[in-house]
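Quick one, probably user error.
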């Protein structure tokens, strides 16, 4: 991956889950949060509910391949965490790639334009 590093520390995963925005399809959920660096960081999780190690590693491979094909389209400076859901092992990388290009990237650009991650801005009703 050209412009991407791997997220390895739990703190970065938790920051994406708690403070980040997300985009969801039926088989993958993607969380994203700005990291303040000139490159993206990628994390992929696949829980034990997906199946044995073979299924979990397949989900990770499929998501990594789909991300690699769309890597140049992503805005820079984000932590991106993909979470595999129950049906992800039966999907192809083309289906996940279409989710990334049609839903995730526009959602990331919309959040950046709206200033969703600026400090001092309240979330929720108001």
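Nope, works fine. Designed sequence:
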């Amino acid at each position: 991956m050209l412009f991407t590093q791997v997220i390895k520390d739990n703190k970065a995963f938790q920051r994406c889950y708690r403070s980040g925005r997300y985009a969801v399809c039926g088989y993958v959920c993607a969380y994203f949060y700005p990291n303040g660096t000139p490159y993206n960081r990628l994390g992929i999780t696949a829980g034990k509910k997906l199946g044995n190690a073979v299924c979990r590693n397949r989900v990770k491979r499929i998501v990594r391949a789909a991300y690699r094909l769309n890597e140049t389209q992503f805005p820079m400076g984000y932590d991106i965490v993909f979470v595999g859901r129950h049906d992800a092992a039966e999907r192809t990388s083309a289906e996940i790639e279409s989710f990334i290009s049609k839903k995730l990237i526009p959602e990331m650009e919309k959040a950046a334009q709206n200033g969703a991650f600026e400090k001092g801005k309240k979330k929720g009703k108001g």
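The domain at 4-111 is CATH 3.30.230.10 (Ribosomal Protein S5; domain 2).
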